[in-house]
Write a structure and sequence with these properties.
Blueprint (H helix, E strand, L loop, with lengths): L1 H18 L1 E7 L6 E8 L2 E9 L4 E5 L7 E6 L8 E6 L5 E6 L3 E4 L2 H24 L6 H21 L5 H7 L11 H11 L9 H4 L3 H17 L4 H12 L4 H17 L3 H18 L3 H12 L10 E3 L5 E3 L8 E7 L4 H14 L7 E9 L2 H7 L6 E7 L1 H9 L7 E6 L4 E3 L4 H13 L3
Parallel strand pairs: 1-7, 11-12, 12-13
Antiparallel strand pairs: 1-4, 2-3, 2-5, 5-6, 7-8, 9-10, 11-14, 14-15
GO biological process, one term: cytochrome complex assembly
InterPro entries: Thioredoxin-like_fold, Thioredoxin-like_sf, Thioredoxin_domain, Thioredoxin_ResA/DsbE_sf
Protein name: TlpA family protein disulfide reductase
Length: 441
């Protein structure tokens, strides 16, 4: 009997180890072929493992090399838009189902508790904000929402006690006043207490998506409440919360926040963040890639003077963007004669420009070409443009200078060559052309 007991004791760690796995079921199964698992760190992510998805399912054994922490599961390409995050306590199996319609639904206790808490709290927050921002907010409704928040927070903290999920549930606790007085006082108190429960110096929190989500939600909520001119003070507030953190973490989270601002066309805010905090962090960390990225964005921001470039006209005379005159507005059209989208849109633009005086708007068509002859055969059909071609190193240079990632790309300038619009697509461009044509100086 003693031998059997000793055998079971020796075997039990192996049994527990075998139970530690990450498994999932994807639907519809034909749409999924692989998963990649990354470990999140304060400064990014580290590849951990990958496996095939077979008949919609997969299983990864979580051995001793996969320790407690935050992980990111990529299930399709591009990675940036096909992932979700997972917490792992180092001792429990993780399982889920996933579909594009329903998203991820966890079965394991840790991730299920955290996921359900975040979804429910987010839902209550939206209802509360909607009531607070209404023309005549009902005090009784507001108190009911605040009570729902308290009840949810208390239950989640109780259920998750002594678990890994508890850290994230406590950190994401929203501001809940003891007594609601009025809307202005509520927002003032919420603003001053927004980060009270979030410890930006905690390494497990740093190694998650929550720091970025927290500062982004703070910025969005109070820019909406106070107005767009308050972006400077809000960004200062955010840096104040990060001031004691490791500078590499500061750089990482602020660079990600900067990208959020850029993606949402918050150019003034993005440039303020860069000029006052991020460029210095990039330089001190010897990160020339980030510094160059920021510099490029700033040079192409609204109101910035477009980078100059030169070309030779048909008579062999050198021309430059800055010396080109005679029009109130200019459209830079980056295109290629071998680009199918360009060959659909450029003739339509050419036709539209026939009815517009070149004293009002001129189009400078920059051909980003691989083959000069094909371009030469194409441009006679586009007679309303000033044409120039960039090939080889010149093509690469202007592409980098203007951060061209696809063709056609349009940039609208005023007479001083300052950027006033970056329309996306033909419809947006034509709307801007109509506005400029209608505007009489």
């Amino acid at each position: 009997m003693l031998k059997k007991l000793l055998f079971l004791l020796l075997l039990s760690p192996l049994i527990v180890s075998c139970q530690n796995s990450l498994s999932g079921e994807f639907s519809p199964s034909k749409d999924y072929d692989f998963v990649i698992l990354y470990r999140l760190t304060p400064t990014g992510k580290i590849y951990t493992t990958n496996t095939k998805v077979v008949n919609g399912g997969f299983k990864i054994e979580l051995n001793s090399s996969i320790s407690k922490g935050n992980y990111r599961l990529v299930y399709n390409l591009p990675e940036e838009s096909h992932f979700f995050d997972i917490i792992y306590d180092g001792k429990s199996a993780i399982s889920f189902t996933f579909s594009e319609k329903s998203g991820v639904v966890f079965s394991d206790e840790q991730n299920r508790m955290l996921s359900e808490y975040l979804k429910k709290m987010d839902s209550i927050e939206k209802e509360l904000d909607s009531e607070l921002m209404s023309e005549n907010p009902k005090e009784k409704e507001i108190r009911n929402f605040l009570k729902s928040q308290i009840d949810l927070q208390n239950k989640a903290e109780k259920d998750s006690k002594d678990s890994f999920a508890s850290l994230f549930i406590k950190a994401n606790k929203p501001f809940i006043p003891n007594k609601f007085k009025n809307r202005n006082i509520y927002y003032a108190e919420k603003k001053s207490n927004y980060f009270k429960n979030f410890d930006f110096e905690n390494e497990q929190l740093q190694s998650s998506s929550f720091p970025l989500k927290k500062i982004t939600s703070y910025y969005n909520e109070f820019i909406a409440a106070q107005g767009p001119s308050f972006y400077r003070s809000l960004i200062n507030d955010i840096y104040f919360e990060l001031r004691n953190c490791d500078t590499e973490f500061q750089k990482t989270v602020l660079a990600n926040f900067w990208q959020v601002l850029v993606d949402n066309n918050k150019h003034n805010a993005a440039n303020y963040l860069a000029e006052n905090y991020l460029i210095e962090l990039a330089n001190s960390a010897n990160d020339p890639v980030l510094a160059k990225k920021i510099e490029l964005f700033k040079s192409l921001s609204m109101g910035a003077k477009a980078p100059d470039f030169s070309w030779q006209d048909e008579d062999g005379k050198e021309k430059t963007l800055y010396t080109t005159e005679g029009s109130e507005y200019y459209i830079l059209a980056f295109w290629s004669s071998e680009c199918s989208h360009c060959m659909e849109q450029m003739p339509v633009l050419d036709e539209k420009m026939k009815s517009i005086s070149d004293q009002k708007i001129k189009v400078i068509a920059i051909g980003l070409e691989m083959d000069e002859q094909h371009w030469k055969e194409t441009i006679p059909n586009l007679s309303q443009f000033i044409h120039l071609m960039k090939i080889g190193e010149d093509r690469a240079s202007i592409t980098l200078k203007y951060n061209i990632t696809g063709t056609p790309t349009f940039i609208v300038l005023d007479k001083d060559k300052k950027i006033i619009a970056k329309p996306r697509g033909e419809k947006s461009l034509f709307g801007i052309i109509d506005q400029l044509e209608a505007y009489k100086k």
